[in-house]
Amino acid sequence: MKIGIFDSGIGGISVLNEAFHRLPDQEYIFYADVDHVPYGMKTSEQIIEYADDITSFLVSQGADVILIACNTATAVAADYLRSKNSVPIIGMEPAVKPAIEGSEDGRVLVMATPVTIRENKLHSLLERVDTQHRVDLLPMPGLVRFAEDEVFDGEKVDTYIEEQVAVYDKENYTEIVLGCTHFNYFKPALYKAFGEGIQLIDGNQGTVKHLAEVLGLEENPVDEIDIENVNRRTTYLGSGRPANKGEFEKILRLHKRLEYVRDL
Question: Which of 71, 77, 97, 126 has its CB 3.0 to 4.6 Å from that of 51, i.e. a possible disulfide?
Fold first, then answer.
């Protein structure tokens, strides 16, 4: 089974990393659309065009399924892609429901890109699950750029987070939904800002679980991944171009970072 995964940039590596842990024996094609990152500041028409081109390319390369490892692209383009393609299209959405279920009486803060927050898909989800109106939405586009530059910690990141959350009473929140795959890299900084008691929830595990169900694959979870072994069955592309040595070294650093934050 060949699984095609794409994102606007390196955020989707966090979904690929989760797939390595839960479905380590599959073949993967990962497409980072580095020429057009970030999607969160693009128009819907642009995002649909990018996603359509990428999906067609991945299918031409033999992908049996397409996983959109991007909340923004899912919100904008998933329905369109499903209408055009016969292969399964798996999308992502912010993990609001499990966050609400785990929050008891606390409030939930959904961090996402401006486009994800703007689109109807998220608001329809909130209408279904946020019956007590305990969810607040916070656009955090700056974290996407920090992630692409591999700046995950330090004064600039801490200051940006504090500035963005300044209008909120942080003590009211028990759960933070990481509504963008780029945000997983920032768990240490978010714990620093909100305290160790905050619960950080992303949709990666649920998305990969859904992928396995759609494909009829039995999950074979592993605590530690053999990155060299899984990478031998993984093709990395930057906007359609094979990853060069420098890009591949960056990918390895990102997997290392994800293994670190996974245990937090």
Answer: 77
Domain, as residue range, for 235: 2-91+204-262
CATH code at 156? 3.40.50.1860
* Residue pLDDT, tens place only, 115-136: 999 999 999 999 999 999 999 9
- Answer yes or no: 194 catalytic: no
Q: Are residues 57 and 186 in the same domain?
A: no
Is 83 marked active-site? no
Do 185 and 102 belong to one domain? Answer: yes
List Cβ<8 Å contacts ≥24 apart for 101-107: 102/174, 102/175, 102/199, 102/201, 103/134, 103/174, 103/175, 103/199, 104/174, 106/134, 106/172, 106/173, 106/174, 106/175, 107/134, 107/135, 107/136, 107/172, 107/173, 107/174
In this structure, the answer to whether residues 107 and 52 fall within a common structural domain is no
- What is the distance between the alpha carbons of residues 74 and 77, in angstroms, rounded to a whole number? 5
Q: Is the domain of 83 the same as that of 211?
A: yes
The single residue of 144, 180, 200, 237 carrying the catalytic annotation is: 180
Query: Which is the catalytic residue, given 69, 70, 165, 230?
Result: 70
pLDDT in tens, 192-221: 999 999 999 999 999 999 999 999 999 999
- How many domains are contained in the chain? 2
